[in-house]
Amino acid sequence: MEATGPGPIVFVAAGLIILGAIASRGLIDPPMEPRQSLRGLRDILMGFAVLLRTRSLRRLYLTAALLQNSHIFYYAFSSLHWQKMGLSKDQIGLLWAEGVIFEIILFAVVPRFGVLRRPVALLVVAGLAGAFRWCVLGTTSDFTVLVFVQILHALTFGAAHLGAMQLLSECSPQGLSARAQGLYAALPMGIGSGLAYMLVGPLYGSFGGAGFYAMAGLSAAGLLLAFGLRGRLDQAPQ
Could you write out the DSSP letters of every residue in 180-218? Predict the structure, then answer.
């Protein structure tokens, strides 16, 4: 087996999954109160229907879809684009690692500062950072510039995810918070991402790195939706 290249990745990923499954055996389920109203498939489907009828949550899902799926072009083609622009594999790897590191730092820092725990503000910041980040990536492949811009991954992804999770937890109808998070995973992050991946291939084929400008447009649209999100969520049924 090769020491480098794509081959070993499959085995490393499989090993980590197995280790995660083994580690999970030591977890203890928290005590759960019986929920008489949520028994049966019919009640489950009715719960999802309640969530989808809530206008504020539909707006939140759409906002999250725009902000998070603006990353799809980056996930799919940034490495190829940067390699064509002359960056080395080591430089590209460093850029990817940098984005993840600053994302982790944000997750560690947010609980310590109250001003960073405002979910709508996090979504607005994510939209602003995304519009700027993708415009820069569409404009230049200068390594020094990219090193600074990659710091924004903490905001474009991390802040958007934290903001959405907080709003779902705070504003979902009573007893449906977990189900609302499930829809978040299924709709914006699941179906939305799948559709985005289908579109970015032709986009890159036609426009190359300039496709990042379309992702900036998604972030800007998510930003506009986020601005009006607070008032609508205040009216969400409890």
Answer: HHHHHHHIIIIIHHHHHHHHHHHHHHHHGGGGHHHHHHH
| Per-residue pLDDT tens over the stretch 131-170 | 999 999 999 999 999 999 999 999 999 999 999 988 888 7
Place of tokens 């499989």: 14
* Residue 182: φ, ψ to 5°: -65, -40
Whole-structure pTM value: 0.80
The Cα–Cα gap between 65 and 131 comes to 15
Nearest of 42, 64, 59, 232 to residue 163 by alpha carbon: 64
Domains (ranges, CATH) in the chain? 57-234 (1.20.1250.20)
The answer to whether the beta carbons of residues 140 and 210 sit under 8 Å apart is no
Does residue 36 carry a pLDDT above 60? no
Centre a 10 Å sphere on the Cβ of residue 126 and count the other Cβ atoms it contains. 32
pLDDT, tens only, 174-229: 777 777 888 888 888 989 999 999 999 999 999 999 999 999 999 999 999 998 77
Question: Token pair of 217, please?
Answer: 């447009």
> What are 85-127's pLDDT values in tens digits?
999 999 999 999 999 999 999 888 877 766 566 889 999 999 9
- Asked whether the beta carbons of 55 and 232 are under 8 A apart, the reply is yes
Q: Which residues contact 41 (CB under 8 A, 6 or more apart)?
A: none
- Residues 203 and 172: their CA atoms lie apart, in Å, by 36
Q: What is the distance between the alpha carbons of residues 175 and 169, in angstroms, rounded to a whole number? A: 10
User: Degrees (nearest 5) of the Cα angle 80, 86, 88?
Assistant: 80
Query: Cα(79)–Cα(204) distance, rounded to whole angstroms?
Result: 12
